[in-house]
Design a protein that fits this description.
This protein is of the alpha/beta class and about 475 residues long. The chain has three domains: about 5-75, Phosphorylase Kinase, domain 1, CATH 3.30.200; about 85-245; about 260-465, Rossmann fold (3-Layer(aba) Sandwich), CATH 3.40.50.150. The chain is built from 17 helices and 16 strands. It has helices spanning about 30-50, 90-105, 145-165, 170-175, 180-185, 190-195, 200-215, 220-225, 230-245, 270-285, 300-305, 320-330, 365, 380-385, 390-400, 415-420, 435-445, and strands spanning about 5, 15-20, 25-30, 55-60, 70-75, 110, 120-125, 125-130, 135, 290-295, 310-315, 340-345, 370-375, 405-410, 445-450, 455-465. A seven-stranded mixed sheet has the order 12-11-10-13-14-16-15, sandwiched between helices. The protein is globular. It binds S-adenosylmethionine (SAM). S-adenosylmethionine (SAM) binds near residues 297 and 346.
């Protein structure tokens, strides 16, 4: 049996907890948890068949890996991502999956006791529900226990973007609990409330009622049971909420980087040279598990990487380009397209963990160790717009990966000149090809180097220099 490690994000449910091994994840049920599991098992199996819930295998008692009444084994997913890294459509698809499970559960006499967006993961671009411990037997009078959490972690974040044009990712990164109703009220104030013709009022009304119940000294479950939320009422609420979620749209089709696909500033020859260089370098890098494409934009190079890797994290700080890439990939069925997961990541602020002790939901650098990073035409943005010095960027890359494909637009490049135009002369004098090559050589061994046609962009394939033991 491989070494077991308690999952840092699994402690809030007293009835089951998760431990992680090399190639599997185990869900350990307490006695009470096991009695729920047995009751909901036919429903869970039917959802596994549909592909909405993660595969789950009940282990024989003698195979128990740790003290528990029963144990489920799940495949270990190749990649764990969090809602603050998802685009609007990703959160929306996750919300719809959550709602569909609540509905299907209610019809089968199964309740969903919470509604954490962290219970959903993306395999490529397909959302899948991973927390089998969320299901419990449902009494006909049970309320939708996860409603408030659904609002905080799905609905309000989506509304924020759809109705106010405000990105939800920073809010979700700020708190694992999402956006509380009071905050939502403030953010989506009376003006917008009016504009949405009562849709928001409906949501607020329910959320406030739930919050009140949660605050009460009385036995909440009994109270609600008495007032009785019959299955029909629950189904109607879910249907209404689903319609609301489905209707939401960012209304955006333009952002700073959304028109980049034509890559007009590259001569067509240099773009072909760049693509061939990336392809050849990754082909020569050996078996690749994770590959990061930092500043992926429309994913042109993520697609090349997907021919050589198990998983490609296509990251960009521009959420619209990620949303568009996600929507495009969702329409594709090739094996390669399914290896790419688009993520909203601003590398200049990424990496921190959130939740209890900052480790309940660990930062990206702890969840993915890339075998290769492609870092194409992005270094100048981080250096000149975000003031992350070349040295620091190369330190991060050297700490993260063995194989690096990196493009350096030099000081004569028109895009670099543009970024420098409004800067005080002299303060970026270190931004030169010579300096970059020196810093790269201190951390990596350059295997290949090519100056692209046009002359101001040089691309490198470099492998990490073995570290000497100190
Ligand atoms: C010049 S484009 C390069 C696109 C692609 N890598 C290529 O070579 O064709 C730069 C991309 O980097 C992204 N970007 C800029 N700053 C970023 C940051 N701090 N973190 C992640 N992506 C960033 C932009 O949104 C844009 O899509």
């Amino acid at each position: 049996m491989a070494l077991l490690e308690a999952d840092s994000g699994s402690f809030r449910d007293p009835l089951s907890r998760v431990v992680v091994a090399d190639d599997s994840v185990y869900r350990l049920f307490s006695e009470m948890g096991e009695s729920d599991r047995v009751a909901v098992w036919p429903f869970v199996e039917s959802q596994i068949q549909l592909g909405t819930v993660i595969e789950s295998e009940l282990m024989a008692v003698e195979d128990h890996v740790a003290p528990a009444t029963s144990i489920l084994r799940h495949p270990k997913l190749d990649l764990i991502t969090f809602p603050f890294e998802w685009s609007f459509q990703m959160l929306k698809d996750a919300a719809l999956l959550q709602l569909d499970l609540v509905r299907a559960g209610a019809l089968a006499g199964v309740g969903v006791k919470d509604a954490s967006s962290y219970n959903i993961q993306f395999v490529g671009t397909t959302p899948i529900f991973i927390d089998v411990g969320s299901f419990q037997p449902r009494k006909r009078s049970d309320p939708w226990f996860g409603y408030q959490q659904f609002c905080e972690l799905f609905l309000y974040p989506l509304m924020l973007k759809a109705y106010a044009g405000v990105s939800f990712q920073p809010f979700l990164r700020g708190s694992v609990h999402g956006i509380p109703v009071d905050q939502a009220k403030g953010l989506l104030g009376p003006l917008r409330l009016k504009r949405q013709r009562g849709r928001f009022t409906h949501v607020l009304f329910h959320a406030l009622a739930q919050a009140k119940l949660a605050d009460s000294d009385e036995g909440v479950a009994e109270d609600v049971a008495e007032s009785g939320m019959k299955t029909e009422l629950l189904l109607a609420t879910v249907a209404k909420t689903r319609k609301l979620v489905e209707s939401m749209d960012t209304g955006l089709d333009e952002s700073l980087w959304s028109d980049y696909s034509d890559r007009g500033h590259y001569e067509s020859r240099s773009l072909a040279e760049k693509a061939a260089f990336v392809d050849d370098s990754l082909a020569g890098a050996g078996a690749l598990g994770h590959v990061w494409d930092v500043g992926c934009n429309d994913g042109m190079f993520s697609r090349i990487a997907a021919n050589h890797a198990d998983v490609v994290l296509a990251m960009d700080a521009d959420e619209l380009v990620i949303d568009q890439l996600y929507k495009q990939l969702r329409t594709e069925t090739s094996v390669e397209a399914n290896r790419i997961t688009p993520l909203v990541v601003d590398l200049s602020t990424a990496g921190g963990g959130v939740g209890w002790r900052g480790s309940e939901r660990p930062g990206l650098f702890h969840r993915s160790r890339p075998d290769a990073v492609i870092y194409l035409a992005v270094i100048h943005h981080l250096a000149l717009t975000f003031n992350i010095p070349l040295q620091q960027q190369l330190d991060l890359l050297a700490d993260s990966t063995e194989n690096l494909v990196i493009e350096f637009p030099d000081e004569n490049d028109q895009m670099v000149q543009k970024l420098l135009r409004n800067k005080r002369p002299g303060i970026y004098s270190h931004y030169t090809l010579d300096n970059f090559e020196r810093l790269l050589g201190e951390r990596f061994e350059v295997r290949r180097r090519e100056t692209l046609t046009g002359g101001s962009r040089t691309i490198f394939f470099a492998t990490r220099t073995p570290r000497t033991a100190s």
